Amino acid sequence: MAPVATPFFFYLLSAIMLIGGIAVITRKNPVHSALALIVTLLAQASIYLMLYAPFVAGVQIILYAGGIMVLFLFVIMLVSIERSMKERQFNSQWVVGMIAATALGGLFIAVYTKGTSIFPDHALSVVEDNNTQEVAKMLYGQYMFAFEIASLLLLVAIIGAVVMAKKRI
Amino acid sequence: MLAAHNSGLVADMETMLHITTLHYLVLGAALFLLGVIGVLTRRNVVIVLMSIELILNAVNLNLVAFSRLWGGVHGQVFAIFVITDAAAEAAVGLGILIAFFRNKETVNIDEVNLLKW
User: Fold this and answer.
1) Is the N or C terminus of chain B more exposed, i.e. has fewer CB atoms within 10 Å?
2) Does A40 touch chain B if contact means CB atoms closer than 8 Å?
3) The complex's ipTM?
4) Domain A1-85 carries which CATH code?
5) The whole model's pTM is what?
């Protein structure tokens, strides 16, 4: 299927993502930040669909927006937030933080304006039908060792989270 | 000179209307910058953890954009591993936050200063 109105969708989705990102870092209420982050993640899943990656888009929606953000909302519910919403929101070294972020932004601008010549002009024509099969062949074939290490990492994270949240070890 | 100015304007519109890999990379860089600002300037630990998730998502966007550029699905597999890693790290980080909150009844990182000399 030929792509239609690509620039309109790209600019619309990137505007949604950037506004959601700004809302994450500036809201006083952490629940508002979490909801803005969910909007950002869903817009990012749509951009994955534009990049011909439907499996990663599905994983992003199910795992990230549907798992990790629900975990964040549960923890925000457990931690008492009313007292922290009345205090100062930005910490005492925010000036140095903004200077460091400006330096990083300048570095990004310098890299992306000088390095545009290394990208070819056109993207390769990608068949979008077998994306899940291709990802599965790569994941269970070439990256099998990393797959097993990731499952070990998840086991360690489960044990760590249970030990951290117990009342008495 | 008028023709040269006109072609510059048309060339700029062409660059903005034809979405290349560079557009996705700049979007990823902007998200990364927002996440870095959130980590460095906020006091609430939960919002710092959410800014770290923003940073990880910016990296994922770069990976998938390059996977589209060079063909193959290596970048997408790497992005799936990054999402798995982010889930594990969010779980352990929030467990640490709960344990810390149980001791000190606050979520400000400015008050985590027991080791300050």
Assistant:
1) C
2) yes
3) 0.90
4) 1.20.120.1200
5) 0.89
